[in-house]
Every structure is written in C-alpha cells, then in structure tokens.
C-alpha cells in the first residue's frame, strides 16, 4: 500500500465514522422527541418551518432567530377573524399559563396573514389583549406569504371591496423549540391541557438532549 493510498483510506474511515456518529445522534434525537407522541405529517415534522422576516409591534423587522429565543406556540391568523382566531389564541394563552404554573417559560406568537389591515400597532394591541407574553407579527404581503409558505399554512382573502372582508386560513398551532425548530403541531380540537402536556414533554426532552 502506497503512502497516498494509506492516507486516503484513513480519510475515508474518518468520514464513515463521522457519518455514523451523526446518524446515531440524529436518530437518538428523533427518538427522544418522538416519545412525546406528537402529530404526524407527510414528509416529517421537520418539513415545516424555516427562516422568515416579519415586523413586530414596534415596527421593527425581526427574523425567526429574533423571535424564537424560547419555546413558542405559533399561530397564523388575523385580528378581524370573528370566531376561530380568538378561540384558538385564547386556548394557546391558557396553555402558556398552565405551563408557567409548572415552571416552563413559553411564549405565544401570533402571525397575521392579513397585512392589509393588520398594521404593527393593530397586531400589537391584539397580541397584548390575548396574553401579556404574546408576540404579534405582521409584515408586507411578500413577507407574510414567505412565512406562511415556510410553515405550510393556507390563507385566502375573500374577494370584494368590502372593508369587512374575511380570510380563509388554516388553524394549526406550531410548537417551536430553539435549536430544533418545529417539533409538533396542535389541532383546534385539542384543549389547553393537552397542549401544555405535550409542550412540557418536548421541553423536557430537549433539555435531556442538551438544548
């Protein structure tokens, strides 16, 4: 065996060991988080979420890294929504209060899909009314669309000149953990106790993984 061949063999062996270690870590992480019994989605929960740029209640442009500094319950809706959004956000707020009583620091996040009416000031007032910890976000139509696409949400404005138009939209709440991204989502029929239970489970699992 020539010296060059030996060096190549060592490099290949190191690469194989590195890949094996990475796969073992990844599978271990998946296993620990999966034990919380979260929702299933085609392509895996990791297919949901991603970077975004939006505008907060102070009119500042923020990114996902600025927002998700702690475990977060994220909901896409709009402030003029007559029934669904208030109920879903109230459920999330109640789950946050349950978690706070248990010692878990979780923030609710509301992302508007109606940038035409939902200015930073409007979103800020709505968020603070729903919960003092809630972060309200809006943005340009392009920014909102990009965030919605990243989280695989749906929305469609009813056409017409009426200022009281409605917007059809999906109603999932996403659990985002720093360092892990979206790890679960909650449907409308899941109550605050279930949201709090699974959220606490994921937080504990992430702590065991060192994140």
TrEMBL record:
It holds the Pfam family SCO1-SenC. Transmembrane segments: none annotated. The lineage of its organism: Bacteria, Pseudomonadati, Pseudomonadota, Alphaproteobacteria, Rhodobacterales. Belongs to the SCO1/2 family. One of its GO terms (molecular function) is metal ion binding. Disulfide bonds join 81-85. Gene3D superfamilies: Glutaredoxin (3.40.30.10). It comes from Meinhardsimonia xiamenensis. Cu cation binds at residues 81, 85, 169. CDD domains: SCO. The keyword RNA-binding does not apply. This is Protein SCO1/2. InterPro entries: SCO1/SenC, Thioredoxin-like_sf. Keywords: Copper, Disulfide bond, Metal-binding.
């Amino acid at each position: 065996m020539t010296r060059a061949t030996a060096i190549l063999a060592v490099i290949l062996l190191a690469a194989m060991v590195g890949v094996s270690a990475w796969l073992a870590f990844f599978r271990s992480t998946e296993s620990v988080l999966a034990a919380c019994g979260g929702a299933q989605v085609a392509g895996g929960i990791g297919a949901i979420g991603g970077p975004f740029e939006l505008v907060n209640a102070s009119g500042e442009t923020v990114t996902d890294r600025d927002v998700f500094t702690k475990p977060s319950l994220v909901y896409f809706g709009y402030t003029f929504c007559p029934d669904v959004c208030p109920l879903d956000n109230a459920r999330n707020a109640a789950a946050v209060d349950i978690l706070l009583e248990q010692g878990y620091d979780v923030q609710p996040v509301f992302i508007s899909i109606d940038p035409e009416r939902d200015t930073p000031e409007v979103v800020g007032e709505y968020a603070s009314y729903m919960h003092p910890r809630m972060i309200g976000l809006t943005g340009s139509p392009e920014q909102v669309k990009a965030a919605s696409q990243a989280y695989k949400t749906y929305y469609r404005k009813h056409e017409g000149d009426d200022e009281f138009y409605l917007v059809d939209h999906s109603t999932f709440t996403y659990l985002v953990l720093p360092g892990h991204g979206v790890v679960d989502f909650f449907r409308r029929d899941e109550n605050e106790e279930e949201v709090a239970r699974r959220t606490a489970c994921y937080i504990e699992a992430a702590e065991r993984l060192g994140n």
